[in-house]
Design a protein that fits this description.
Layout (H helix, E strand, L loop, with lengths): L3 E2 L17 E6 L5 E9 L6 E5 L12 H7 L3 E5 L9 E2 L7 H15 L4 E6 L1 H12 L4 E7 L11 H13 L5 H10 L4 H11 L5 H8 L5 H8 L9 H9 L7 H17 L3 E6 L9 H7 L4 E5 L6 H4 L1 H13 L2
Parallel strand pairs: 4-5, 4-7, 7-8, 8-9, 9-10
Antiparallel strand pairs: 1-6, 2-3, 3-5
Helix pairs in contact: 2-3, 3-10, 5-6, 5-7, 6-9
Length: 329
Amino acid sequence: MMQILRTPDSRFEGLSGYDFQPNYFEVKAEDGTLMRLHYLDEGPREGEPILCLHGQPSWSYLYRKMIPLLTAAGYRVIAPDLIGFGKSDKPADMADYSYAGHIDWMAQWLTGLNLTGLTLMCQDWGGLIGLRLVADQPERFARLVIANTGLPSTRSVPDQVSAMMAQMYDTVPVPTAAMVQEQFAAGGQGAFLYWIKYAAESPDFCVRDVFGLLSRIEDAAVLDGYEAPFPDNRFAAGARQFPLLVPLRPDQKAEREAGDCAWAVLAGMGVPVLTAFSDGDLVTKGGEKAFQDQIPNVQSVTIKGGGHFLQEDTPEPLSKAIISFMQTT
């Protein structure tokens, strides 16, 4: 059975702007281990539901500024913490996390709550997981809002590119956070490999430093909020494993092929889709084009002034874009 860690509730006391009622649902790992998954459920129950999925290494705290704006507009906002993050349980071994495992855990939660009529708001790994959920259960989703994310496939990562990246990875030194930031700023092809190696192998990996890399947060109390789920590095196995799970290597081709199937479903669903990428994200810059090219009739908006964590940087423009999109579709 997996070893499971649970962040003490005391770590979440007094977080600025995060005064929401916790909700919990139990999911089961492949080996039978039971894990508690935390989620927020705010706003009127009769309101159209918006499913807000976070990425790495954030948690539902990322949506704390948007939730009041969306609920004030009459929407119900549901924001889970992925297993390994936030108030959800955390398997202690990096090997306990897989791409398929994350999708399965979230699918158990989605079907257990029997959520339907959803507008998905997804960013970072929230897209890699959320869009696969949509493809597996399209009947549950009414709209998609896709922000600062991607969906790997054999089209985006063909075999020759996969083989090249695997070879390059071995030549990348174990970097510091500053080295990763330099690589992203330079726009080099190998920047993401530096990010993977930093998360997976650096003895100095630190969630706080990740937000220093990818955001302009200067408020120490806000950084405390993002760091709250991780009392020490034992709790960060999920955060460290996530970049390794992006299916780039040759041995991960099955996940890229699953991505192909998901793209086919997304292209044929016929639901309204909005891309809402920010103009300041060094990680996913230009990623909206794949969605615009492969899904018919996509609407698009650029969220100006936002970095990778645009929910943190630009909550009002992003919320307004979602509300306008929902009101007109």
